[in-house]
Amino acid sequence: MHKTTFKILKMDCPSEEQMIRMNLADLTNIHSMDFDIPNRKLTIFHTDNHDQIYERLDNLKFDTSLIESLSADNYTEVTDNSDREKKLLWQVLAINFFFFALEITTGFISNSMGLVADSLDMLADSIVYGLALFAVGGTMTRKKHVAKSAGYFQLTVAILGIGEVIRRFVGLEEIPAFQTMVIVSIFALIGNALCLYLLQKSKSKEAHMQASMIFTSNDIIVNFGVIIAAGLVYLTNSKYPDLFIGIVVFFIVGQGAFKILKLSK
What we know:
Blueprint: E1 2-8, H1 14-24, E2 30-36, E3 41-46, H2 51-59, E4 64-71, H3 82-110, H4 113-136, H5 140-170, H6 178-202, H7 207-236, H8 240-263
Antiparallel strand pairs: 1-3, 1-4, 2-3
């Protein structure tokens, strides 16, 4: 048995983690993979040499380099926590989908594109958690089909959202109800904080779980962005802060869509 560690500079979100898993899935000499997302490292326990593994990683164009490859004669199998991870991922998926429904409804009612965009970001989170569930169980072919459908759907809503923001920039739209923006965003912030708490409480070192934690942490930043935009709407009595945060979040959603589509290849 060998233990090989790679540095992967562009591995910083669930999409890259899933792409690596899927790209290496058919290599029978791999026994386990240990991801260190914050430090952009991947440790693989495998038989034979690491040449084919490195070639697969390098083809992803994630700036991969070899750190070290050592003998791992004391390697032991990792305990299977699939059922517990599935339960946790279903919980955070349900929370994200609930707030997607809440934000998109209140976003249209309050005329806030910031809330609508954030709702679609929550929907994108639900898609990522769904893909993480397939990482816990499910065939690779099935996972790729789901990734492709989810990616095209997410890309479509991102394009439609950006188009709507542009239309509102040039049109005579009402100023969003900043009170609704603040209240709903605070609730969404609490929801994301709860998801992060549940993920951290699991203390799982599995890649898809660690990546989900980072993804949720980024969503908390987006929630604060919408709250700040609501404050600027109030202070300036203008629709533009809301539209600005809306277009930023829609670009984030669109970028995520392209990453998800890469998973299906």
